[in-house]
Amino acid sequence: MASSNKASGGSVGDEVITCPTLRSKLQARESPFLRGNYHGGGFTSDNDRVLLQSVYFADRHSAGNRSQDRLEALSVQMKKASFKNAAIDDATSDLLLSVPKYAIRAGARKRIYFDPKETRMAIVTAGAICPGQNDIIRAIVTKAFDYGVPEGHILGIRNGFRGFTNRTRRPMVLTHSMVKDCHLEGGTLLGTSNDPADIREIIKRLDLWKIDQLFVIGGTGGNAAAYAIQRECERCNVPTAVVGVPKSIDNDMLLFDKCFGFDTAVEGAQAALMAAKVEAASGYRGIGIVKLMGRRSGFIAVQASLASGVVDAVLIPEVPFRLEGEKGLLAYVEKIMARDGHAVICVAEAAAQDLMHGEGPRRLDAAGNPVLSDVGPWLKAKFKAHFQDADIKYIDPSCLIRSIPASSQDRIYCRMLGHGAVHAAFAGYTGVTVGLINTHYCYIPIPMVIQAPRTVDPHGELWARLRSAIGQPSFVDDEDEEFCPE
Amino acid sequence: MASSNKASGGSVGDEVITCPTLRSKLQARESPFLRGNYHGGGFTSDNDRVLLQSVYFADRHSAGNRSQDRLEALSVQMKKASFKNAAIDDATSDLLLSVPKYAIRAGARKRIYFDPKETRMAIVTAGAICPGQNDIIRAIVTKAFDYGVPEGHILGIRNGFRGFTNRTRRPMVLTHSMVKDCHLEGGTLLGTSNDPADIREIIKRLDLWKIDQLFVIGGTGGNAAAYAIQRECERCNVPTAVVGVPKSIDNDMLLFDKCFGFDTAVEGAQAALMAAKVEAASGYRGIGIVKLMGRRSGFIAVQASLASGVVDAVLIPEVPFRLEGEKGLLAYVEKIMARDGHAVICVAEAAAQDLMHGEGPRRLDAAGNPVLSDVGPWLKAKFKAHFQDADIKYIDPSCLIRSIPASSQDRIYCRMLGHGAVHAAFAGYTGVTVGLINTHYCYIPIPMVIQAPRTVDPHGELWARLRSAIGQPSFVDDEDEEFCPE
Amino acid sequence: MASSNKASGGSVGDEVITCPTLRSKLQARESPFLRGNYHGGGFTSDNDRVLLQSVYFADRHSAGNRSQDRLEALSVQMKKASFKNAAIDDATSDLLLSVPKYAIRAGARKRIYFDPKETRMAIVTAGAICPGQNDIIRAIVTKAFDYGVPEGHILGIRNGFRGFTNRTRRPMVLTHSMVKDCHLEGGTLLGTSNDPADIREIIKRLDLWKIDQLFVIGGTGGNAAAYAIQRECERCNVPTAVVGVPKSIDNDMLLFDKCFGFDTAVEGAQAALMAAKVEAASGYRGIGIVKLMGRRSGFIAVQASLASGVVDAVLIPEVPFRLEGEKGLLAYVEKIMARDGHAVICVAEAAAQDLMHGEGPRRLDAAGNPVLSDVGPWLKAKFKAHFQDADIKYIDPSCLIRSIPASSQDRIYCRMLGHGAVHAAFAGYTGVTVGLINTHYCYIPIPMVIQAPRTVDPHGELWARLRSAIGQPSFVDDEDEEFCPE
Amino acid sequence: MASSNKASGGSVGDEVITCPTLRSKLQARESPFLRGNYHGGGFTSDNDRVLLQSVYFADRHSAGNRSQDRLEALSVQMKKASFKNAAIDDATSDLLLSVPKYAIRAGARKRIYFDPKETRMAIVTAGAICPGQNDIIRAIVTKAFDYGVPEGHILGIRNGFRGFTNRTRRPMVLTHSMVKDCHLEGGTLLGTSNDPADIREIIKRLDLWKIDQLFVIGGTGGNAAAYAIQRECERCNVPTAVVGVPKSIDNDMLLFDKCFGFDTAVEGAQAALMAAKVEAASGYRGIGIVKLMGRRSGFIAVQASLASGVVDAVLIPEVPFRLEGEKGLLAYVEKIMARDGHAVICVAEAAAQDLMHGEGPRRLDAAGNPVLSDVGPWLKAKFKAHFQDADIKYIDPSCLIRSIPASSQDRIYCRMLGHGAVHAAFAGYTGVTVGLINTHYCYIPIPMVIQAPRTVDPHGELWARLRSAIGQPSFVDDEDEEFCPE
């Protein structure tokens, strides 16, 4: 009984998320791992598939039904996304509204489309720092050397896309000794920035420097730029493979099981919550408020609160709340204070934007991200006004969390993402990104993961787990009825 | 478009792993979460399903084909298992040889079969300590209180199954204040032991103490005992729900994505490898040897080595190796020493048993686990004899790793396992265990996960990733041909 | 040659810092450790002495001459102290201006002045939290039990001095099981507050609750209150021994080698500086600004910067600086940026108050501490205005640092402080505090350590070490000439 | 009142520990820090003094009397030392029996005796690894650059003294970039070894390579070699300044407040004790045995046990104990087991050698250190035999402790030691070592600190504190009477 026949019937092929390639423009050759260079575990077929959805709900009301359906979630979130990514044009976007069932499996292919000895690579890191960036750089470089790419052929672009054009920050040549221990330090050895990418200038440099493969480790903005670069390469007939590695410490990338660095960040965030607990419990009527990262979603806030076991209320952008009123947050914290003498509040940075600004459209920054007002001091002031005798401590640990080296699991994840990215490029894929789906590594076209942010579903399992674990009620009067079991 | 219709056709139901229940003997009632007690995220239907296999291989030779197929792996490993669990009798075992495609999803049910106000529970931890045990105890107790179980109704059995009968270690009553912060400490507040379970005596106590629900946090031995208790309960018509929570720091439980505490252990193991690297690199011809846990499998050794990036050779029980000869380990380490001046070796505790003892059958201990010879000192002596001028350091960090508190991700996992176990018992399931499959929580009949150990597939992706990452060759002359890509 | 004869001639006695006692009002008896109760290492004589000054300068210009002379430093700092402690009245203060050469050695005495079996104690923690508070509570309680104080006789006053009068926070009875593991958690199990002490009300409660010995773990404010309580006890003829344990995470207590919790805080602060370095080095023209604790002195900023090795400039309240001008901070950081591409600035919270407010007298809070403007955001804004293209990150890790459990060395220190405090009280001392001087534990009258803060001497060794280590120039035009070696 | 006049009268000069210099053979010149090169805090006079003894005992029986007298301790320990260092010949040794009262203060001198621009340095690390070695290397190199030593003039000798002669391990040139971040990693970047020093060959290389200043970071053996090198240099008229930096993770160097790396080691050791506690408390009749470093003394065992608060009995080489008998260790642990159900034992590696081997003279290794039998497995076996039903866990964390990077306080200490060593060499001192005495940095002739090991005084304060803290009785029948207070 070969398991491969499970994919029989061709039906799988029909429903797969296809990835763009450069193959028609390039010459195929054998992987060096086929003979000689040790590789390890055989090759992955282009036709291997990973199911996007591994759970089946028997009931429309089954817990997590809506949120756990990755495909539907994708469509739903795209439709309602208030800050749809401008880099994805409508044509592409429409295409994605009907999402196939399977993804292409990542891994080394038997046939590759670049001659490793001639291949020139560039790596760029963009956006805020995140645990694991150096691990990925290291994994890309060492895997490239495994393929046979010569030392001297791998450029590190410095400080994000700015490094393509900035004369004071010329690219650095990445060698084995430079990356050997780089994963032991936080941050990115290439430097980073949030500068927008000047696509035309970048194409010029890729051409000038003869870059065959460009790897972009970045967030939504970085991947959007990678996508734009790939489209422009296509338009200009520049045969550079562009591969993204999705970075989101907030874990707000669509489709993937999780983003690299997220586990590490949750560990750091959890420590901050414990500190807030100590402060609050030692104070007289102590209230600890911790602001955690989450520009569009509350994953860190939710998971760190779940892990810590010390949080009394969690505020995330996906779930509206009220401060005032009988069911409001302040009244709830009053009860907690009466019971325990102290309280700990965890707030994601994008929470309460509506309370601070009203419901109107938000201002976006250059990278298309919403400009956020600082919820931390605002919330502290509101608490200070309400609990006048309380000893309120406010903690913003974001910089401390971002800068730590990756945990072991993130380190392994990053290594696999880096390897997967190199395999993708050599296999001729372009405009793709790599990530874990149902515990398997997959390639996904970039637009699909960045068109809208992944968010905590207010009706989904994760939020329910948190509320159940800490006993948090709804802080609005008219809780969505679907939320209650029928 | 409800996603539930994806499970249409009834075909799902036909192929599901069924779980035994006590429902016919008990009276159903509404969950208290249906009204009043806050729960959170709706209920899970008994008919919700999780696919065991989410990857499809297009090619018989696709990387990881054999190992990634959970179902087939189960069959294969059962057939060839050299230390099949004696607690599983043949009838059951045969039944399991044909494994269905779906598992039952874990979660709160609308209908429960115990009246929370009358329910009495017992919790027991068995086997070696493991990060996260206290988290699970805490999760079970707090979720029980959420259901409405009265304080005073939850017994903690002390020091494993011994605590059912030992007069000097009477059960303790678990209260909210006892478990509130227990997750911050390592070990298990109940104490543990490897003592075999005296099934008849245990049944007597369950009956005497009127225990409705018994939770067993244990390894293969503990779950085998739980299974035996459940069978005996059935035979004696004692309506106690027996639910296991599978503990394996070695991560050698079948079917599940991972076992709780494993990530934490890998983090600790990785730190020991880094220490060995520092020792080796500082010594004159330094060789660091680290023995890591793994009584039947090499998962910790493989993952910690992958994460650390400092290991030169990994020895696990699943992959035979030779010390001597041109392709042997010693010759390979000679090359490493010539290149780097130092080397780091990571060995799982069950590796090299054949080299130490020959290929004959191994002796088993009372719990059915093989009695292992200590590979650490043996390997150190072999290296000392071969590299006479080398500075060899041997590290065994096992106790330090086992005793640390759980990481944040393990903490969350443990919480969900504990909640899932309580939901299972209230839903009338018995003889089941709970775990994560393709990122979803599921219930599985105990025999299915303990009948044989999960092992690192020498032809699978994990081992290939490691070999590829560290460049480790085969240390036997006649490497299995299938291993090489065709 | 017995060393004891070194103390011969009586001359030592003449120059010793004397400590007030209650002995004339109490009845002496033998220490229980003289027979039976195990104690350990013999007794300390009332006449044992510790030299306050162990260094002798051959030259007026010897490095650190002024600052290293504890006695002179005391006088100098008292005279020029801009925020002299109001609790110390002038009579006492004058007395202290001529400081003796020796301190009384701490330790168990053969003769004690309270019958342990009848002794009632109270412990209070006041001021901000600090690593080690629980260690000291634990040490006091366990040593009291060693003396033979009955369980039930030790009260924990809650939330600082407020706990003497607040009806909702009644004192708690401290038992062995309550303190057994309390040192593993940060903060203080008693709770704390900055509330001023109502001396009369406190005396009433001490009398009402029959407290024989009061232990105050607190900062300058807490010790000032302890001193006031002792004076009022004296006035009212209440024979309660009042013993302080000086708490200052900033390490700004006069005379002592260091304050408990300081080493732990430096470790935490150093981690924040490393995070700032990672952020700065990863950013495009990154500047990391870290604000560290130090309400009156810059010890944490200096030591953490020395330890980290990543800081480019350190700003402390003791050393004035200018932002603008050729020799100003901004110009210096420009040079660093040009050289390294990034910079890390460490600023103590009390630095730059003159730049923000001018040189006038500062406002004091209820506890007599100066009200500080927040230098962090101010400095960030100044840098933002000057380095417009820079990526500036600001970190305030104070809450995270304060709340961690103590390091091993702090743990040992705290244990000895707690034991020393109990020995002092039983020996009949009152109005004293305990600390380490030249590596020996001593008793010192409270006013002597709180009359003025200990500060980093701008001409002393510590500041010189830092400047030498990081190459920091003076940021004022007219550097004090004495600073330069002649 | 200038404190400098305290050193008046010349009396100090008469009683000072003098240090050998090369000044008569070299030409004095001004320190570059006198003009131009920034230094910081002025200069230290050759006549500045630090008192070795800062405590005065009023009573022969005062706690710690004997042990706290550094001078007398020195004499006493030398006389009774069973393993007196063979490298110190009798003439020198006799000289040291009468110890002066003052030490010379360390620090930069105004007059130096080497032209920095022409100075060539060599640095060697010898013996086992210890936290902080890289910090010291870094401090020496950076301070040398501060003096004006050119890049290229500083050699790192590899793998201890072996590196002077081994052709495969040529010296490395230490540059700024090599040492910049080296303190973030454990171990020593130079490598180390325990190989004996071939003095004549080393002198040849020093001459050949024109080394003006040799820095030896090593233990007793390394400093003995440094002393022998200095003597041979003197004999051969080679004007190389030889300066030691005393390394002893065991903290067994005479005179100094503490050795670098010790605090870090205690922290790591304490973590191992906590792990043993978790194992013991979780097991059924669990006993945790932790073996800690301490080849000649029990400082780590004592301090880590004091810090942890979880240890029931501590065994160190300085304090004999019996296993059997009514007052023996086993009987005591029986009582602990009866009371708590578990026990934790901490044993220093050199403890119980007499029980294992009888009282005869011990075998010495090449470096003059006693060859130790492994007390860990021996003790475990004894316990196993006695407590047959106990669950005994044995932990040896030494490698994990040695290899970690230094704590912040150790980092600062190492920096000062490295700076002090460079100042010593430029000031023309030779045959000296640097360390902290009564909180001040001092220079001491090498023989004085290595002639005998510093040990825990069984009648001293430290041991008394430990016994008092954990309530440990004597495990011999006839406890020394002096130990009991009269």
From TrEMBL, chains A, B, C, D:
Gene3D superfamilies linked: 3.40.50.450, Phosphofructokinase domain
GO molecular function terms noted in the UniProt entry: 6-phosphofructokinase activity; metal ion binding
Domain Phosphofructokinase: residue ranges: 120-424
Domain of life where this protein originates: Eukaryota
InterPro entries, per database record: ATP_PFK, PFKA, Phosphofructokinase_dom, PKF_sf
Cofactors: Mg(2+)
Pfam family, one: PFK
Name this polypeptide is given: 6-phosphofructokinase 5, chloroplastic
Organism: Auxenochlorella protothecoides
